[in-house]
Amino acid sequence: VYKINDGRCPADVMCIWQGEIQVTIGAYNGSVGAGMQDITLGTVNNKTASVSGYLITLNSATKTSATITVQQPGTIK
After folding, report:
1. pLDDT category of residue 72 using cuts at 50, 70 and 90
2. What does the alpha-carbon distance between residue 58 and residue 49 come to, in Å, rounded to a whole number?
3. Which residues pair with 42 in a beta bridge?
4. Torsion angle, alpha carbons of 8, 47, 39, 73, to 10
5. Distance, CA of 77 to CA of 73 (rounded, Å)
6. How far, in Å, CA of 73 to CA of 76, rounded?
7. pLDDT in tens, 33-47
């Protein structure tokens, strides 16, 4: 994880939308290739992404950390 953006509604503020935390990670090597590919996942929108057959899921995130699951091709059901 190299970037976490916390766009959630601050405490004691009335917001139209609750917001979300977005996490940006980089993938490279293997079937992804030598070049870095940025992947942005969110706690509300885009919780999963498919990259070169791998399924990447954002399980949880805070302002300082994120838990991500990566499933290999052939293990996704």
Report:
1. confident
2. 9
3. 22
4. 160
5. 10
6. 6
7. 667 788 899 998 899
Query: 1 in helix, strand or coil?
Result: coil
**Type of residue at 16:** I
Q: What pTM was estimated for this model as a whole?
A: 0.73
Q: Are 55 and 75 in contact (CB under 8 A)?
A: no
Banded model confidence at residue 54, pLDDT cuts 50, 70, 90: confident
Q: Give the phi and the psi of residue 42 in degrees, each rounded to 5.
A: -130, 160
Q: Tally Cβ neighbours within 10 Å of residue 9.
A: 13
Residues 71, 51 contacting (CB under 8 angstroms): no
The helix/strand/coil state of 22 is strand
**Calpha distance 40→22 (Å, rounded):** 7
